[in-house]
Amino acid sequence: MIGIICAMELEIEKIRVGMTDVTEEKHAGVVYTLGKKKGADVVMAVSGAGKVFAAICTQAMIDNFHPEVILNVGVAGSLSTDLSIGDIVMAEQLVQHDMDVTALGLKKGQLYGSDYRFFPANSKVIDLIKECLELVNLEREKEGKKALHAIKGTVASGDIFVADSGLKKSIVDEFQAVACEMEGAAIAQVCCVNEIRFGVVRAISDSANESSTMDFGEFCKMAADNTAELVDMFIGRYGK
Ligand code: ADE
Fold this sequence. Notes:
Layout: E1 2-6, H1 9-16, E2 20-27, E3 30-37, E4 40-46, H2 51-65, E5 69-78, E6 88-96, E7 119-120, H3 123-142, E8 150-157, H4 165-175, E9 177-181, H5 184-194, E10 197-206, H6 212-237
Parallel strand pairs: 1-4, 1-5, 5-10, 6-8, 8-9
Antiparallel strand pairs: 2-3, 3-4, 5-9, 6-7, 6-10
Helix pairs in contact: 1-6, 2-5, 3-6
Adenine is lined by residues 75-77, 161-163, 180-182, 205-206, 208, 212, 216.
């Protein structure tokens, strides 16, 4: 079974299209939609925004449905000049940019009492996402549509909607991250301790600066929809 977690309903809407044999179950306050897509068993959920909701949703998904792999999909703020609105980020690793026990000598982002700091995404999952991106772009070319531009890199998560150039710079300087969002590292941590494969795919909705409040509202849906073709391809090809 493939698990898909989005923070917001609008991020999952297009991914849910075409699901068959749909049933629903509620656990820990989260509605899980089960069904089939492209011949695969899938479970999809909207976690709510932020690391705690994301962690609850991920653990309950693992406990109740035992997915082989979990994909976290949605939008992100850009931290890189290589990324424009609508572009795709494939996370190589994730870090909590707001985890700060530096006062006790830990590195920024490091979790107290462990060596955890960066959570690497599963390399096979990253490779498959890359392969799917190439296939999606071939299809887009045939249809005369613009190719999706994507980069790989570190994604930084925190319980902050980044809309400030100073904070943006500090996250880039500290972690060399290319995008920021609010759930990926929490989902990564839960998957890591449960030994579940995971990947994080995000599309850029804003530039994590003073324009973000306006841009997020305007571009969120378009960016979220850009991930759907990629996720569809992933579902169709995973395990084949
Ligand atoms: N998700 C989308 N844009 C974001 C931003 N600027 N900060 C945090 N999460 C986001």
